[in-house]
Amino acid sequence: MLEAQNLEMKYKNKLAVDNVNLYIEKGESVGLLGPNGAGKSTTISMISTLLPPTKGTVKYNGKDIFDKPESIRPFLGVVPQEIALYDELSALENLTFFGKIHGLRGQVLKDKIQKVLELVELTDRKKDAVKNYSGGMKRRINLAVALLHDPEILIMDEPTVGIDPQSRNYILDMVKKLNKEKKLTILYTSHYMEEVEKLCDRIYIMDHGQIVASGTNEELKSILTNEETIEVSVNVHDDHFTECLMNNQSINQITKEENGYRLIVSKSEELLVKLFEYAKSSNIVITGIQIKKPTLEDVFLHLTGKKLRD
Which family would the database say this protein is a member of (predicted)? Predict the structure, then answer.
């Protein structure tokens, strides 16, 4: 349904997006995951025809969207990272304004406004000025605007930034329902691992403008199939203990946490014994050990050498 081929965007001497290739099948929910500055929003801007690429193409149902932007725009709903509403207007006035931009008029427009207000559960607040809404309510109206014209593809660029957990879960549940029940195709960008795990059939991991891995949740985790994660809690961080960990050939990645260390290790029955030996020689106490299956966070750490939110 949608395919990006060799997308590149260069700002002066900086390559913000570097040879990105991705595709989305009809009815899929696809995640674009990466830290701030990875190039997600720039990629989204190109796919939504807001930004022409330095190189590469995007095709929608086989047609180049840069040759004919009108081939995709009527079928595209975009929820931008920043709130795109007029604060002084009410939700109803905002929806009416944006609906008319999409060519909706009369009873058709009224019916669609009623439908999306019910969907985001803000019918009773529709005449209130947006400036009096909470952050979560603004995000929900932002989503309502994107859904007003019944798009075939919904692009959401970090739509839960800066809102409370209740509103965040509400939006995630709503998006999942739209995808599963209404078969709405979704491209969802985030730097929250748990969001894309919950919503997406497939995931692209992006860093420094490049796609560094892609696949289903389980396929990505299988990258570390011969490894496991060990969380070691200690009473105090210690340089000698850290050095011992770094010199152990079975430990592939070390992340210092608030109460200890997170290790990605090659599976080894001897390593646990070694950890207690290192602690004894460093005069520190191991207060807890947890062995876990690799997570997407671990995969990202393995691929990029840093935590997702770094």
Answer: Belongs to the ABC transporter superfamily. Drug exporter-1 (DrugE1) (TC 3.A.1.105) family.
